[in-house]
Design a protein that fits this description.
With about 270 residues, this protein is of the alpha+beta class. It has 2 domains: about 10-130, Ubiquitin-like (UB roll); about 145-260, Alpha-Beta Plaits (2-Layer Sandwich). The chain has 7 helices and 9 strands. A 5-stranded mixed sheet has the order 2-1-5-3-4, with helices on both faces. A two-stranded antiparallel ribbon has the order 6-9. Strands 7-8 form a two-stranded antiparallel ribbon. Helix 6 packs across helix 7 (about 235-260).
Length: about 270
């Protein structure tokens, strides 16, 4: 007979009220978890289930009775008896304004259809800020044969930083540089990507919601007009294969270049 294995103490259920509907969820769940249980569409831009919540996009905010401010649903844990409103005028106004501010300063044209749907659902009109609105427009960074960085599309969701750091790759090739309005995603000391700690794992591209990070093969195909958004095979598969081939070649070159030289902290060549 196998030995008993302790898997942890059972968690109790917590009852909350969301938009007038009662639901019980496991203690420690977030408001977003509870909303999803009720199939309430809650917009998120900086949240992924396998990444640590960073609470930066603020489009998932909800209204909690007794709370002075709106709270982020992605990280706020449920509490017994909590009364939550996800579609009040205050919530809708906040989400609309956040989406408008983002879309007025950042190129969000490559965002998913879901994000575009939220823009329409909340009546976001970024054009109301006028043509003189400040933007983060800047030249595309193409300094290697694999990845393209277009920070004019970056909304500072921090997903790429989290994926490159302790939540996934533990490479720490990219991070947040600058403060306040000067905050931006960068390699260490803004060094070119081939000279950074990047191991070209692709995790950052996989989590980017706006197309600020993409494979160079996709970037080139878009420029040529051969990229089909609705196609999941064909050109996409060829782009993936081309990207994988380029990745293997680039890593081999990197290993040769760095052979015999001490690796900087956090750099791992695979």
């Amino acid at each position: 007979m196998a030995d008993a294995v302790f898997v942890g103490m059972p968690k109790r259920l917590v009852g909350v009220n969301i938009d007038g509907r009662e639901i019980e969820v496991v203690e420690g769940s977030t408001i977003l978890d509870a909303c999803r249980r009720l199939t309430i569409d809650t917009p998120t831009l900086c949240q992924l289930d396998n990444l640590t919540p960073v609470n930066v996009c603020r489009v998932c905010v909800v209204e909690v009775e007794g709370s002075r401010v709106l709270v982020p649903a992605c990280s706020r844990k449920v509490e017994a008896g909590m009364k939550i409103r996800t579609d009040s005028e205050r919530v809708r106004h906040s989400r609309r304004l956040v989406l408008e501010l983002l879309a007025s300063s950042v190129d969000m044209s490559l965002c998913s259809a879901q994000v575009q749907g939220w823009m329409s659902q909340y009546g976001a009109q970024p054009e109301r800020f006028g043509a003189e609105a400040a933007t983060v427009a800047q030249p595309v960074k193409v300094d290697n044969d694999l990845y393209v960085r277009d920070y004019s599309r970056c909304i500072l969701c921090y997903k790429c930083v989290e994926a490159c750091g302790v939540d996934a790759q533990n490479t720490f090739a990219i991070g947040v540089a600058g403060r306040g309005f000067d905050a931006h995603i960068s390699t260490e000391f803004d060094t070119p990507l081939p000279d950074s700690a990047c191991v070209y794992c692709g995790n950052c591209i996989g989590v980017c919601p706006t197309g600020a990070l993409m494979f160079k093969s996709e970037h080139d195909m878009r420029a040529e007009g051969t990229w089909d958004e609705g196609l999941r095979g064909g050109v996409h598969a060829r782009a993936a294969r081309a990207g994988q081939h380029d990745r293997e070649s680039h890593l081999a070159a990197g290993q040769q270049r760095h052979r015999g030289a001490p690796l900087r902290e956090g750099a791992v060549w695979v």
